[in-house]
Design brief:
Largest sheet: 5 strands, mixed, barrel
CATH superfamily of the largest domain: 5' to 3' exonuclease, C-terminal subdomain
Order of helices and strands: EEEHEEHHHHHHHH
Radius of gyration: 17 Å
Number of strands: 5
CATH architecture of the largest domain: Orthogonal Bundle
Oligomer: single chain
């Protein structure tokens, strides 16, 4: 029904964004992957997916068509709902999800909150052939590991607190690009606001 939305960003956090179009503010659920693209932006262009439930109509937004396509493939797997698919796309980028499925990396998929062995195996079985057809539009930025010893120490602390490694590394990499002089405490404090 909806293909995309363009307009000013009036509010944004790691789980949702509000985009104003035609005088109406649309509450759109997003992944951490999309939040990284939108963070600090005044304008948004998001590819949409409308999820209709008995109790709500929910809009999910994606920075690229590829991410939306991956989301749609994931929710097509029995046992994976929109929130779990969003969690997967927050923990890993499109290329990482695709690689994990193509290489049948059950351990990597199981590391995502809400994904057990059976679900990971079902994802691989159902999506392996389909995911090979999904192109990767965006240029991948290579390794996402923290860029300093302080970053590595902060990552270890956040992972021990229960956050997913992929999400932690994405946030810490972005924070250290913004300000490489963060102390360990400042880095953890800033990352906790974003996770």
């Amino acid at each position: 029904m909806y293909e995309y939305i363009k307009g000013p960003v009036t509010a944004a956090d790691p789980t949702h964004v509000v985009v104003e179009t035609g005088g109406i503010g649309y509450h759109i659920l997003i992944s951490l992957q999309t939040y990284e693209v939108l963070h600090g932006q005044k304008e948004a262009h998001l590819w949409l997916h409308l999820q209709v439930r008995d109790d709500a109509h929910l809009l999910y937004g994606f920075a690229t068509r590829d991410e939306r396509e991956m989301f749609r493939l994931l929710i097509g797997v029995s046992g994976i709902g929109p929130n779990t698919a969003r969690m997967i796309l927050s923990a890993m980028n499109n290329a990482e999800v695709r690689d994990a499925l193509l290489t049948a990396d059950v351990v990597r998929l199981k590391s995502i909150k809400g994904i057990g062995t059976k679900t990971a195996e079902r994802m691989i079985l159902e999506l392996r052939d389909k995911v090979a057809k999904v192109g990767l539009e965006e240029a991948e930025s290579g390794a996402r590991a923290p860029v300093s010893a302080v970053g590595a120490e902060a990552a270890g602390a956040l992972i021990q607190l229960g956050f997913q490694r992929g999400a932690v590394e994405k946030v810490l990499t972005r924070l250290q690009k913004q300000d490489p002089t963060y102390t360990l405490e400042e880095l953890i404090r800033q990352a906790l606001k974003m996770l």
